[in-house]
Amino acid sequence: MLKIRNLVGGYTNTPIINGVDFEISKGEFFVLLGPNGSGKSTIFKLITGQLPCQKGEISINDKSLSSFSKLEKAKKVAVLSQEVQISFDYTVEEIISLGRFPHQKGLFKTLSVEDKEVIEEVMEITKVKQYRDTQFRMISGGEKQRVLLAKVLAQQPEVLLLDEPTNHLDIKHTFQMLDLLKEWQQTKGLTIFAILHDLNVAALYADRIALLHKGSFLDVGDVDTLRKESQLETVYEVKVNAQSHPTVPKPQLLMTPNHSKTKSELLNFDTSFSITKNDQFIHVQFESPLRTISNGVIGEGIQWLKHFCNFHVEKHYNGSNPKQDLQKWMEKYEIPFEQSVAMMTAVRLEDVVIVTKQIEDIKVIAVVTAGTGNAVDITNSSLSQSHEKVGTINSMVFIDAHFTDGALVNGFMSATEAKVKALHDLNVKDPETNTMATSTSTDALLLAVTQQGKETQYAGSGTVVGKVIGQTVYEATHKAVQKYFHRLQK
Ligand SMILES: Nc1ncnc2c1ncn2[C@@H]1O[C@H](COP(=O)(O)OP(=O)(O)OP(=O)(O)O)[C@@H](O)[C@H]1O
C-alpha cells in the first residue's frame, strides 16, 4: 500500500534520515518509535511533502506520490501533524467541514447531503458534537486534537499519517482516540502510520513498529520486538524491563530509575515487621513492600506488598464472594487490601506456628496455620466438593534475600514440596481413598522476599536457599498439623 524506498533527507545538505525503507500494508497500523531527535518528525515531513526528499521514492499502490495531483492526494492521504495553525475564527464544525473539501464537486463547492452525513458521523465518534458551534480557539488543547482528528477522518482517506496524535490528551482520551482509530482500521481498512512516544501505548495498538535510532531503522517488526530489552536500552539509554500485560497478550515495559537504595533505606529484617495475632486474624506488617508471590484470595500473582493476613472464618463459611468479604473485614481493621495478601482459614488462629531459620546469610520465617480435614491426594481422580471440615494449610514464608521472578517460582515449589513431606511424615491421608494426602483442597501459600543482597536465580531443592525454605516450611507445617491433631483429641 504505502511504500517508502531509500528515503534520504533533512534540513541541510547533511541528511538527518539516511536511507530508510519500509512498506505498510493496507489496513495496517504502523507505529514509528524513537527517542527525541532520532528523526521521527523529519521522516514524517519527508513523507507528507513538508520537506523535499534528497533521495528515495514514496508510492501508494505502486504509484509515485509525486505523480498525484493535490486533490487526488488529498482523497488518498490525510495528515494530522504537530504544526497545525488555525488562524481564523472558524467554528469546530467549519473546521471539520474543511476535511470534505477534496470530495466536493462543481465550481461552487458546497456541502452535499453525503458530506453532511460524514461530518455528523465523525463529530459523533470523536465526541466533539457539543462544541460544534464553538470557536476552535475557545476549546482546550485536547479538544482541539479531537476536532483535528474529526477533520482528517471526514476526509475519508485510505492512508492516515499522524504525528503524535495523542499529544495533549489525557489517558481516557488517548485510549478513546486510539480505540477509534483501531476500529476504523479494522472496519474500513484504514492504513495508519503514526509517531507515538509512549512505548506501552504503541505495544497495545500497533500491528508493527519501527525503532528509529540516529536517522536509521534499528529494527522493524511486530510489537514483540519491544521485548528486546538491550536494544531499547541502547536507543533510549534507560534500564528497561519487558513484562506482559496481565490481560492482553502484549508486551509492556517497565523503566527502572537510576537511583538505588541508600544504606539507610536497607531493611533490618529482624526489626522490620510486626505481627498482630488475635481470634479474628493474623496480620504481618512490614515497613517496606516485599516482592511477593501468592495464590491468596487477595494479592494473587507476583506483586510488591507490605501486609500479609490470614483471616479466621466459621467452619461452614461458604461466602459467594470471599474477596469482597475479606475486603470488608480488612477495611474494618484498617488494613489496606490493595497492599496485602489475604487468605482465610477455619483453623483456630491461636494454633499458629512460627519458625525462624538461618543458613549462611539467608534467613527465613514461616507462619503456618494447619488443619487437614480436607486432605486430598491430588492423584486421586474423584472430585469431592465437601468442605465441611476444618482443614486448610495456610503458609506465609518471609525471606531475607534477593530473588529473580524465576527464583520466586522455584521457592514456591520448594515450600510446596516441604509441605507434602510434612503431610507424608505425619501420615495424613485422603479420607476418600485412604492414600497419602499431598495437600488440603484449599491451601494458600505466599512467599515474600526483601530483595536485599546478591541476586538469587534459583531457589529449588538443589540450592541452599531452597533448603532453608524447605526446612523452615517443613518444621512449621509439621508442628501446625500436630497442634491440629492435639486439638481434635481434646
Ligand atoms: N527545522 C529544523 N532545522 C534544522 N534541523 C532540524 C530542524 N528540525 C529538526 N532538526 C534536527 O533534526 C534532527 C531530528 O529531529 P526530529 O524533529 O526529526 O526528531 P524527532 O525524533 O521527531 O524528535 P522528538 O521526539 O523530539 O519530536 C534533530 O537533530 C533536530 O535538531
Automatic annotation (TrEMBL):
PROSITE patterns: ABC_TRANSPORTER_1, ABC_TRANSPORTER_2. One of its GO terms (molecular function) is ATP binding. It comes from the Bacteria. The keyword Metal-binding does not apply. Residues 2-239 form the ABC transporter domain. It holds the Pfam family CbiZ. Keywords: ATP-binding, Nucleotide-binding, Translocase, Transport. PANTHER family: HEMIN IMPORT ATP-BINDING PROTEIN HMUV. This is ABC transporter domain-containing protein. It comes from Anaerobacillus arseniciselenatis.
